[in-house]
Amino acid sequence: EDQVTQSPEALRLQEGESSSLNCSYTVSGLRGLFWYRQDPGKGPEFLFTLYSAGEEKEKERLKATLTKKESFLHITAPKPEDSATYLCAAGDTGANNLFFGTGTRLTVIP
Amino acid sequence: NAGVTQTPKFRVLKTGQSMTLLCAQDMNHEYMYWYRQDPGMGLRLIHYSVGEGTTAKGEVPDGYNVSRLKKQNFLLGLESAAPSQTSVYFCASSYARGRDEKLFFGSGTQLSVL
């Protein structure tokens, strides 16, 4: 059964304190691992797509990595404006929809 | 550039009432989707469309219907609303699936069914 699990559910960081968010996925064939950012009251906003194990992508203070079973979103020296819920989703080559995790709610304290 | 626009933003219904949510995109995307987001659960796909005139069921289609008469619009209908349909509904569109799959989401509709 296709499944995506994110941890932790919530994370509080001091400004400048680096950390990582985890996304574990189970799909029969991965067509893509996606990261989105969601601010309160808004729709998710695309961040990254990863396609194969070993792939990495970066954007400002964010870096996403992928293994055969997990993806990590590394946040380096976060700022308060990085506070948001980060969603992970996996696409299965045998299914039409994306399977979303429940998200990690990140709070960065000044 | 508006992107994906959803209307209305908020709606309250009584059990048994019907309503239609409208989604419009101005990016000439082929693929359009309706998701619902509930606390403690990930976004779940209700219905989707791979092009004008096509629709297909997603993960949780029961109680909903959709239509895509024009490429830019995707309508989600609730024929007889139930309290279990209280949720935040998001429309999304994408240019492709696979290597260029990138969903653009609307800002959501908060629906409460009493």
Could you explain the architecture of this structure?
The complex is a heterodimer of chains A (110) and B (114). In chain A, 0% of the residues lie in helices and 60% in strands. Chain A has no helices and eleven strands. Chain A is globular, with a radius of gyration of 13 Å. The model of chain A has no long low-confidence stretch (mean pLDDT 95). With 114 residues, chain B is mainly beta. Chain B has one domain (4-100): Immunoglobulin-like, CATH 2.60.40. In chain B, the strands form two sheets. In chain B, strands 2, 4, 5, 6, 9, 10 and 11 form a seven-stranded mixed β-sheet that branches. Chain B is globular, with a radius of gyration of 13 Å. At the A-B interface, strand 4, strand 5, strand 9 and strand 10 of A face strand 5 and strand 10 of B.
Low-confidence stretches of chain B: none
Strand segment tally of chain B: 11
CATH class of chain A: Mainly Beta
CATH superfamily of chain B: Immunoglobulins
The secondary-structure class of chain B comes to mainly beta
| Percent helix range of chain B | under 10%
Global geometry of chain A: globular
The number of helical segments of chain A is 0
> Can you count the helices of chain B?
0
The share of residues in extended strands of chain A comes to: over 45%
The CATH architecture of chain B would be: Sandwich
Instruction: Assess the beta-strand content of chain B as a share of residues.
Output: over 45%
Secondary structure topology:
The complex is a heterodimer of chains A (110) and B (114).
Chain A (H helix, E strand, L loop, with lengths): L2 E5 L2 E5 L4 E8 L3 E9 L6 E6 L5 E4 L2 E5 L3 E6 L8 E9 L5 E3 L3 E6 L1
Parallel strand pairs in A: 2-11
Antiparallel strand pairs in A: 1-3, 3-8, 4-5, 4-9, 6-7, 7-8, 9-10, 9-11
Chain B lengths: L3 E4 L2 E4 L5 E7 L5 E7 L6 E6 L6 E2 L6 E4 L5 E6 L8 E8 L9 E2 L3 E5 L1
Parallel strand pairs in B: 2-11
Antiparallel strand pairs in B: 1-3, 3-8, 4-5, 4-9, 5-6, 7-8, 9-10, 9-11
